[in-house]
Amino acid sequence: MKKKFLLCSLSLFIIPMLIHAQSVYLPASHEVYEFLKRMDAKGYLSNYQDASKPLSRMYLAQQLKELEPSSESMTSLERATYEFYKTEFNYELLSLADDPEPSETRWHLFSKEIDGGIFNFDIGYALTAEKDGGLKNTISTKELKFYGYAFKNVGFYFNFDDNKQWGSNLNYYRTNTPEKGIINSAGSVHIPPYSLDLIRAADPVTPEVNFDEIDVQLSWQIGAFTFSLEKSNNIWGYGENGNIIFSNKAPSYPQIKMRVHITDGFDFIYFHGALNSNVTDSLKSYFVNYNGFSSLREIDHTKYIAAHQVEMTLWKGIDFSLGESVVYSDRGPELMYLIPVMFFKAGEHYNGDKDNCQFFGSLDLNIIKNTNLYFSVFIDELNTDKFFDSNDSRRQLGFTIGGHLYDLPLENIELSAEYTRTNPGLYSHKYPSATFTNNGYVLGSWIGQNADDANLSLTYRPIRQLKLSVFQEVYRKGSPMPLNDQYAGDQGGFSFLDGMLHVERMFGVNVLYQPLRDVYIHGNAQIHSLTDEASPAQNISNQFEFNVGARIGFW
C-alpha cells in the first residue's frame, strides 16, 4: 500500500516539470503578512486572500506590486515599510516583470545563481531569558536555512532549528500556551492525545529539554497548479492568538499539497498528510532480546489527514472560504481521500463511518476603510435537525471572531480585539488514533476543547524598526468532556467550562526592535494571575514576569 501511495504522489509531479513557473512558500510568521493585512484594510489591494497560509513568495510579491499605485497614499511609515519589503522580494518582483536574469538584492550569508533560479543560504541564532516570579528559563536556538528556485519551475525551502531549553520552570508539554508543541530529541514520549489537557505546566519532568524542528518544501508549478512535497504546518482560518482550523501548535507533518489559482479571487487548496497517532499498536509492537539486553519496539497506529478548501473574493473587501477535513487511521493511505475534489463526508459514509470528518469556514471583511473584521468556525460534529436542543444538538464546534482598527485615532496605531471559544468535545473522537491531533498536540487552536480566550491589544510603531504594544488577555479552560458523555444521547449534562476550571489573566507590554535586517531584539513584561482547581499549587496572584532576547536570521 505504501508503494501505491508513493506512486500516486509522484504522479502528481511528473508533468509539472515541463512548464516555466516557480513557487516557494513563505513561513506564516513573516511580518509581510501583517503589513499586507493592513494594506488590505485600507482598500489598496483587490484580491488579497490569506485564509490558507503559508502563501508563496511570488504571490506575496504580486500583492506588493499591486500596491505601487497606492504608495503615495500611504503614511510615511507605511511607505518606508513598503520600500523595505520591495528589497526583501526583489528577486520575485523582477521575475514578475519578466526580467530574464532577476537578481537578489537583500543580504544572505551565501547566494548564488543556479540553472533557472537562485540558491540562498543563511544561518541564525536566538537566545531568550525568562523570569516568572522566582523561576527562570533560558532558550537557545541554532538555525540553518536555505531556499530558492531552480530549473524554471522548481522551488525549494529547508529550515532546521536545533533548540535547547533549560531552567526551573519548563513547560515540557506546552500546555495552556500558544507555543509550538515539541518532540524530545532524546526519544519519543507517548502521550494519549486526549490526556494532554490534564497535564499541568508545574509537573517536574526534567531541568533541560532538547528538541529540533524541521520544515522542508519541494514544489513544482504548471500554469495555475502548484504541487509540493513538504513537511510543514498549514495555517487555515483567521486569528492573531492561534487559529481555530489549522494552526502552528502541533509539530509540522509530511504532506502532499496542491494549490490551484482558478482565477483572480478564486483558489482551491488540497493536502494529504501523515500524522503521528502516539497510540501504540500492541499487535505489531514486539520485544527484542540479546544476551540480557531487552527492548520494546513500539509500533504506533497509522494516522492520516486530508483537507481541502475553496477561497474566494465575493466582492471587493469580502473574502470567504469553505472547506472540510478528515482524519483516519489503522489503514491507508486511503485512495478515497487522495482525490482532491472528493466530498470527504460522503467518503466517510462509504468507508463505514469509522473516520473523523470536520467542516470549517472563514469570512474576512474589509468594507470599511481602516477596519478589518474576521470570523472563523470549525465544526467537529453538529446535529442541524436539533440545533436548538441543548441536550441533543451535539454542538461540538469552535469559533474565532476579531477585528483590527488602523490609524484610529492617530497614524501608525492599531487596535486589535479577538475572542475564541471551543465547546466541550471539540477535536476529540471515540477512537484515540482518529483525534484531530498530531504527536498529541491539537491541530487547531492551542486552547483545546471546552475553553475560551479573549485578548485586546494596542500597537504603536513610531518608526518602521520599532513596535510597541500593550495587551490584556483572559484565558479560561474547563475539563475535557468524558467520552461516555460525548457519545451519550444526552450531552446537555456537560456544559461549557464544566469540570475543574483553569483561569489565567495577563496584562503587559511587548517591545520588538529591528536595528538591522534579520536582527531582532524583543522583550515582554506582564502581570500574571492564575487559578487552577485541579492543581492549586500552581495558583499565582499578580506575579510579575518578563523575558528578553535577541535573534538573528529568523523570520
- Gross morphology is globular
Roughly how many Å apart are the termini? Answer: 39 Å
CATH class group:
Mainly Beta
Which structural category fits the helices and strands?
mainly beta
User: What's the gyration radius in Å?
Assistant: 24 Å
What is the third-level CATH name, the topology? Porin
Tell me roughly what share of residues is in helical segments.
10-25%
Q: How many domains is the backbone divided into?
A: 1
Largest sheet features: 18 strands, antiparallel, barrel
Question: Which stretches are low in confidence, meaning pLDDT under 50 for 5 or more residues running?
Answer: 4-20, 187-206
Mean pLDDT comes to 89
Helix count, DSSP H or I runs of 4 or more residues? 7
Strand share of the residues?
Answer: over 45%
What's the layout of helices and strands?
Blueprint: H1 2-11, E1 25-26, H2 32-41, E2 52-53, E3 55-56, H3 57-66, H4 76-88, H5 90-96, E4 110-114, E5 117-132, E6 135-150, E7 154-167, E8 208-222, E9 225-232, E10 235-236, E11 253-263, E12 266-280, E13 286-290, E14 293-297, E15 300-315, E16 318-329, H6 344-350, E17 356-365, E18 371-381, E19 396-406, E20 413-422, E21 437-438, E22 441-442, E23 451-463, E24 466-477, H7 483-486, E25 502-516, E26 519-532, E27 540-552
Antiparallel strand pairs: 1-3, 2-10, 4-5, 5-6, 5-27, 6-7, 7-8, 8-9, 9-11, 11-12, 12-15, 13-14, 15-16, 16-17, 17-18, 18-19, 19-20, 20-23, 21-22, 23-24, 24-25, 25-26, 26-27
Helix pairs in contact: 3-5
